[in-house]
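Marked as duplicate of an earlier ticket. Keeping the data here for the record.
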Amino acid sequence: MKHRTVTAFRPHSEGLAKLFGSLESDIMDLIWQRRLSTARDIFEGLRDQGQRISYGAVKTVMDRLVQKDVLQRSMECHQHLYSASLSREEFTNSAVREILSSLLDSFGAPVYAQFVAELKDSDPEKLRHLARLVDRAS
């Protein structure tokens, strides 16, 4: 079975919260900034950001992110170290690819039409750039 990057999609949320729960997205932000961290490091980073949360809650969410294959966990000097399975850019690209593929598989032509309409309304230059990309791909 193909690995899934996206386990939830919340179109009305902002940033990473579209793909993760609120705490998950905050944890991933810190993991991507620090590259390698203990659960205690992440807990303290969240507390420094003003979050009132327990260490146990942070550890539980991080363990769930390991189960989802978003984080990797290794043991070093009698403590677990966590790192992202993919860089932020790799994760984002994979998530966008998965969401678009799912939308196209389910809805086809309306997805293309809405995408073009959004580009036309928001940034006509991007629409021209897309047209050039399509021409080159043909």
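See parent ticket for discussion. The chain is about 60% helix and 10% strand.
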